[in-house]
Amino acid sequence: MAKIKHNNFIDTVDEVLSGAKKEGVLHLYAEDKVLTGRTIQIKGKEMFHFGTTGYLGLEQDFRLKEAAIAAIHNYGTQFPLSKSYISHPLYNELEQKIELMYGIPPIITKNSTLGHLAVIPTLIRDEDAVIMDHQVHWSVQNACQLLKLRGIPLEMIRHSNLDMLEDKIRQLTTKCNKIWYMADGVYSMFGDYAPILELLALTQKYTQLNLYFDDVHGMSWKGKNGTGFTFDVIKELPENCIVVSTLSKTFGASGATIFCRNQKLRDKIKNFGGPLTFSAQLEPASVAAAIASADIHLSPEIAKKQKDLADKIAYFNQLLSKGNLPIISKNDSPVFFLGMGTPITAYNFVHRLFKEGFFLNLGIYPAVPIKNTGIRITLSSHNHQQDITALAEAIEYHFPKALEETNNSENKIREAFGIDGRKNERILESKIQELFIEEMNTIQNIEKLEWNQYMGKQNIFDWEGMDYLEKTFSQHRDPTNRWDFYYYTIKDHKGNIILMTFFTYSLWKDDMLATESISMHLEEIRKTNPLYLTSKVLSMGSLFTEGKHCFINQEHLLAEKALKLLLDSIEEKYNSLNADMLVLRDFEESSNYNKTIRDQGYFKIDMPESCVVQNQSWHTYEEFTKKLSPRSRKHFNKEIEPFEKYYDVVIKDKLSKSEIARAYQLYNNVKDNNYAINTFRYTQEVFKNMNESPNWEFIVLALKTETENPFVGVMFCYKNNNHTYVPELIGMDYKWAKEYQLYRQLLFQTIKRANALQFQKIDFGVSASFEKRKLGAQIISKVAYIQARDNYAMEFMNTLQNDYKSIAKERKCI
């Protein structure tokens, strides 16, 4: 299989968060000598604190503090023993009081992350399966990864998509014993709720279905005795439901609690629940603080605290509703999410609120999709009504100003979040009359000389190449090979072209750039479900082309504004098409517009490296090899030149009907053997249209020893105006590939042909860069910029990636 450089998910996350850190909105330090909960000091400025997850403010309650201090005096800073041996003196009292709250004996763990690691591998049997909401907390997803090593099916659905959940359940019903669905009770970013009643109804319809809720953000501020949102809905815990809650966050102490109805299962988790068995227990101070908090939860005081917070939440909701702000999930939780759309708008807004004296949290990728960047605002009992009033006024004042300064609009934000908005307005175009944008749907409406002047020397997208692509893929009968074309030209008021590009709208496989093992796994599923994990994508360029898909006159004073106008226009197109993903490619890593594009709501990923041969002119093999490194010269003399004698090499402008059939067979051989870049299979029309185009030719290799057999290799090559030679596709008979170095010979014959035609450049594509480098190719790093409706596909790919890495490491150890 051809090897390519794959994007690393962690690198993408690191770049996004590093950018936010540079903007001064992440990885901050509180500087207070004393914390009160109401305010917090950052960089010398005291701010009202609207970023806590201690919603009832119990972490500052004097009773919890005094209990913790007394416990340290009486028992020390820690009790360094596993609970499997002995628990320190306060544990029994805490467990009894938590049982009084819930009516069920708890399992207490150091924190919820370790709690999931203790419960999930013990709870889930080898014959079971797991389905995760893709927004379920990271700690749940991380614990579930351990199940993969045991061969337990691990599926993921889009956020709260019950239709998708039901489809997954039906697929797993005959294969598994129990099916566990993992979700949050209250989701930490948007503050929205799990559809618990609907999920309980599904458990009645599918008796194999069990529910597992992480309710750490629903704790204390909701429910009788502060037992949390999930218990407030279900009232009584059924046998088929597990709930994990927390003693941290709103409870004001530390630790986590796990509840299940089955006594035998509780004992099993406590006997061998990973961190429960082998990790240190909660410190005495934490247990003492939790006991003090439990006393409050068991008293009428908790209801008063809940009502006080609920009144503040209702008041804030009332204030926000006056301004019709894009609050993403309107409910009675203490978590609010104000949509910003793009990171640059969020940075601008956060800095504005910081200056006004309000601390808020940034919500950014990967916690939310990059285009769903926003501000997470949390209320607590510490906030005074006048603080809330001042915050609402500051939001109302600064929100439109942040939008204006960052070329954003409320309508764009509503589009990004799928909220009903006003009719689209071309704000940038109306403001900047010196720029004018034209959109065309066919190359036929664009002047050939003008297109070729700015775009025509790249790859196969000269005017004739675009004409071929339109005739081949536009209105194709096969939806996987059907593309819509959009051409954009931006001019100044004098008619000078500043920017020119084209986009295609088509179906992509979500694993197109995933590792081969993932694609091979997914292709097995696609044998019965051909469109499994596919997306509708509006992409710069096309799946058939690579290279500089966008011309920008960087010397023009309005170049950056022209790019922003393009981004506005394609975002409108993206929304009108209701596409799943918007992709800008292939930019070089050092692009001057990296920050401009990312600030408009894109994250950057690494693309496969591009291979290019340039400015080669030689008459003999000796001249050719002088251009190679000493090591590559040895490779040519040993692995390439000696094998040329075994082949008859013929250049054909046209293939016969039988030759087209053979060429298509060889193309399919390569397609079936190569998942490095996993695209849809091209149909025979693609090759028949090549045969009718004067710009295409075919380098055909036949083995001299196999006179009765058809040719064994073919390179499908495009000739771009005597400037760029493009070996677009390859076909091989693998029976002869290794013995006669067929692939390497096809590469060299392509170079030889381009040299004979005096082409100045060969676009050698994006795979097998190691082999192409040995023949003199220059390797160019490329990046793409992406927007997506949600993070589901990327997170699911990352889940599969981790799965295969773990299996590979295990096999290596064995």
From TrEMBL:
Its cofactor is pyridoxal 5'-phosphate. One of its GO terms (molecular function) is transaminase activity. Keywords: Aminotransferase, Transferase. Residues 631-773 form the BioF2-like acetyltransferase domain. Gene3D superfamilies: Aspartate Aminotransferase, domain 1 (3.90.1150.10), Type I PLP-dependent aspartate aminotransferase-like (Major domain) (3.40.640.10). It comes from the Bacteria. InterPro entries: Acyl_CoA_acyltransferase, Aminotransferase_I/II_large, AON_synthase_class-II, BioF2-like_GNAT_dom, PyrdxlP-dep_Trfase, PyrdxlP-dep_Trfase_major, PyrdxlP-dep_Trfase_small. Pfam families: Acetyltransf_6, Aminotran_1_2. Residues 47-395 form the Aminotransferase class I/classII large domain. This is Aminotransferase class I/II-fold pyridoxal phosphate-dependent enzyme.
